[in-house]
Design a protein that fits this description.
Blueprint lengths: L2 E7 L9 E5 L3 E5 L2 H17 L8 E10 L6 H8 L10 H12 L10 E11 L3 E8 L3
Parallel strand pairs: 4-5
Antiparallel strand pairs: 1-6, 2-3, 4-6
Helix pairs in contact: 1-3
């Protein structure tokens, strides 16, 4: 059974809300904001560098979003965050998952409809990053 684990350095970035613009005063066009597009591209590029192969079967995806401790945190609060006594409240984990899943589409798998099982968690750590694990699901 094939699996892949890789890291995307930097603060976890959630999928932004869809944006709408009017084209030629007639048509509404929906698009993804630049920050989200850049993050999705970064996820895909990291996968290509660290793993490189494509799954052609149903997959399970687990993400761990590790947020950096805020600089304004006191020493005690920082230690509590690192010990898992306090969890990040910012950024919905489902939106972070969506950004990662969309960034891997066409690179780690053909379509994110191949994801049949998903899980995730968020916590604080010394260095902000997202750890992504993809595994084949045997039927």
């Amino acid at each position: 059974m094939k699996s892949a684990t890789f890291i995307v350095e930097g603060e976890p970035t959630p999928k932004g809300r869809p944006r709408v613009r009017v084209v030629n005063g007639k048509f509404a066009q929906v698009y993804t904001d630049a920050k989200t597009r850049e993050y999705e591209k970064k996820v895909g590029e990291e996968y290509k560098v660290q793993v490189g192969y494509k799954f052609d079967c149903p997959v399970s995806v687990h993400i761990t979003c590790v947020h950096g401790v805020p600089k304004s945190a006191t020493k005690k609060r920082k230690q509590d965050m690192l010990d898992g006594l306090e969890y990040p409240v910012k950024n919905d984990i489902d939106n972070c998952f969506k950004a990662c899943a969309d960034g891997l589409q066409g690179i780690a798998y053909d379509n994110d409809s191949q994801i049949v099982k998903m899980s995730g968690e968020k916590r604080y750590g010394e260095n902000a990053h997202v750890l992504i694990k993809i595994s084949e699901v045997c039927l």
